[in-house]
Amino acid sequence: MKLKNYILCMAAIGILAGCSDNEPILDNPIQPGTALLSLAIDTRDVMTKGMTKADEDATIASLSVFVYDATSGKLLADKTKEIEAGAQTEVDSILVSPVLSKVLVLANLENDMIELLKKTDLNGALAATTVLSSESMGRFTMSSELKTVRIQEYLYNMMGYTDLQVENTENAVSIYQEKETDPSIKLYRTVARVQLMSVEYDDEKDEFGTFVSLTIDSMFLGNVKSSSYIASNKDYLQVEVADAALPANGWWFGSHEFWADRPYKTPVGNQEDGQTKLEKDLLSHQFEAPLTLTKTPEKLEVTGEKGNAIDGKQFFIYENSADGAGRSAGYTTYLVLRGTYVYLDKEGKQKEMKDRYYPIPINNNKGTSTQTGVLMPNHQGIMRNNSYDIWVTVYGPGSDEPWLPSEFINLNAKVVVVNWYPKVVIEEPVE
Known about the structure:
Blueprint: H1 3-18, E1 35-40, E2 62-69, E3 75-82, E4 90-96, E5 100-107, H2 111-118, H3 122-127, E6 129-131, E7 142-143, E8 147-150, E9 156-159, H4 163-167, E10 172-176, E11 188-189, E12 192-201, E13 210-222, E14 224-225, E15 227-229, E16 251-252, E17 264-265, E18 271-272, E19 284-293, E20 298-301, E21 315-317, E22 320-321, E23 334-344, E24 350-361, E25 381-382, E26 386-394, E27 411-419, E28 425-430
Parallel strand pairs: 1-9, 9-10, 12-26
Antiparallel strand pairs: 1-4, 2-3, 2-5, 5-7, 5-8, 6-15, 7-11, 12-20, 12-21, 13-19, 13-23, 14-16, 17-18, 22-25, 23-24, 26-27, 27-28
């Protein structure tokens, strides 16, 4: 059967199946089903469902494609496909209309979100939000840039394929290719990653007393947004939501068991009980074996081909820019270490200081990017699809409050901003 006849046949079946005696026939409707759309999705360093690999943060379990009229924003077509192990990562044969269109690709959506997007237009899709508690290893939400394309009648309209793939497909035309060597459509995680890479002690800077030991027993994140948009038409695909009015649930303040009985103060004095808004291990971590430094120079560090977090713990959080959407001063995202500091006083007596805190502002200063392109600009704060890898040097007892400014907490920290796949480093010391 010729492609034109095949498409018209599919359209006729769809129209007959969708009509009822109670539905009016609209005057001059957009004629459906006069073209087919196929998309190839980039899966470099991304694994499909069912494969075994340590980096589950790159798993794609499902892909959803939504096609909108570029002028009205009306949803014209959609298709969701489960991705099996070893399968070619593409979504093909979507029945569409030959109009100027905007195409959005999303990954790992929950069923409720898919059903919601099927009932709304482009503006509704850009306003849809997901919550941090729904993000999980192996099911992180991802999105592409919003692509504007002109779909051509009676043809296979191919997005993200190589020239050779298009040439080898009958009645096909390429309507979009990425500018990179790999023409396939790129996906970007909604979340960013934070991980502690090393802790060391610098005896030369310690003016408090004679150092004996420092034991770090836990860490948690503070000032983390609990929701995010799932897609964006902004520069760098920013999906940050505006601040919610405290004490509403628009913000989560990281915590741990030791905060369960009392609220704590944020930098601007608001009272929040972070434990009530915190799922276990989402924003906090108790070390299986406490990190103990008993001599200098000593450094606790985990290294590897890709780099690994101490104790294997990685935090995944949403965007929180220092100069972004409606952000208030004082809400920089922090990684806070808690521990016990032991020293000898001037008389040689050993003293122990418990519940000492070392808050580290994450990416509080703009770094210098070594890569041009999407999602890797100079920036402050947290930006999606970046990894914030932290090396800490401690030289004192820290603070009895978790939110003291960094100049009072006896530490230096280096925050290295890494774009997930490919890994490109922005180095920025935080003094």
